[in-house]
Design brief:
- The chain is mainly alpha-helical.
- It has one domain.
- Helices cover 77% and strands 0% of the residues.
- Helix 1 (5-23) packs antiparallel against helix 2 (30-40) and helix 3 runs antiparallel to helix 8 (172-196).
Length: 258
């Protein structure tokens, strides 16, 4: 599968920008990779596979730096990922119609963005910065979002982070770190799901070029996050990115209105 060189350059620039922005809030950018790939590729399996691999590349570097800078502790994250891994694998084995896939993805992203946006304007000083929740909630959230992430072919952090921020599970930087780690393990699980269901399709030229683009963008973005963004800054950037992508995916890819 070869696409014209000018389209490949366009994709590389777009993927670099997406990786920079998304990695700054702990995400891999899978939802936006999907949206861009649909503009130039016709194979749904290739679109899903490339987005998942690029996701994996970005969050691998982000996760390493979050742990290195002590923003992540494995024991806090294990309940989420232990429940999500098998469900992400199961979700990835489902063969959805393309329109159904994009409708589910678009609606999920829009709801996640609205959840997160509300928090940035909430002014309730009586609430604690971090709330306490029973441990089983981590397993429930991990399982549900893991299945959804496998179903749509992205890591799931873009769904998890708004929910955890709304619940005040922890500080914004730690939630970003969890989202990154969550995406990492779910992307690996989802990749195995694609392989076992014979749905993996990776055109080598396009995949190599796009992986290099997201690797560079991801490393730039995570360093911006660690040094520059405040807690509310992380939330606002996250909400805006998620909402814009959700609207586009729903209207253009899901309902075919434009």
């Amino acid at each position: 599968m070869l696409i014209p060189i000018e389209q490949l350059v366009f994709l590389c620039i777009g993927f670099f920008i997406i990786a920079t922005l998304y990695s700054s809030v702990g995400f891999g950018g899978g939802s936006s990779y999907l949206a861009l790939l649909t503009l130039v590729l016709t194979s749904f399996f290739a679109i899903r596979s490339i987005a998942l691999v690029c996701n994996l590349v970005v969050v691998s570097g982000s996760t390493y730096l979050y742990f290195k800078n002590s923003h992540a502790k494995l024991k806090d994250f294990l309940p989420f990922v232990l429940a999500s891994i098998p469900l992400a694998y199961i979700g990835a084995t489902f063969r959805l119609k393309e329109s159904v896939f994009f409708i589910i993805l678009g609606c999920s992203l829009i709801l996640s963005a609205l959840f997160l946006a509300v928090q940035t304007v909430e002014i309730d000083k009586s609430k604690k910065e971090v709330e306490d929740y029973p441990n089983y909630l981590s397993y429930v959230l991990g399982a549900g979002i893991g299945f959804l992430s496998g179903l749509v072919g992205i890591g799931g952090g873009i769904f998890l982070a708004p929910v955890l921020n709304h619940l005040r599970w922890n500080k914004a930087i730690k939630i970003a770190a969890l989202a990154s780690f969550f995406i990492l393990v779910n992307s690996v699980s989802g990749l195995f799901g694609l392989i076992t269901s014979d749905s993996l399709s990776l055109p080598w030229r396009e995949t190599i070029c796009l992986v290099i683009a997201v690797l560079l963008g991801g490393q730039l973005g995570i360093r911006i996050s660690l040094k520059k963004l405040s807690a509310n800054g992380i939330k606002r950037v996250t909400a805006l990115l998620v909402f814009v992508v959700g609207i586009r995916v729903l209207l253009v890819n899901g309902l075919g209105l434009f």
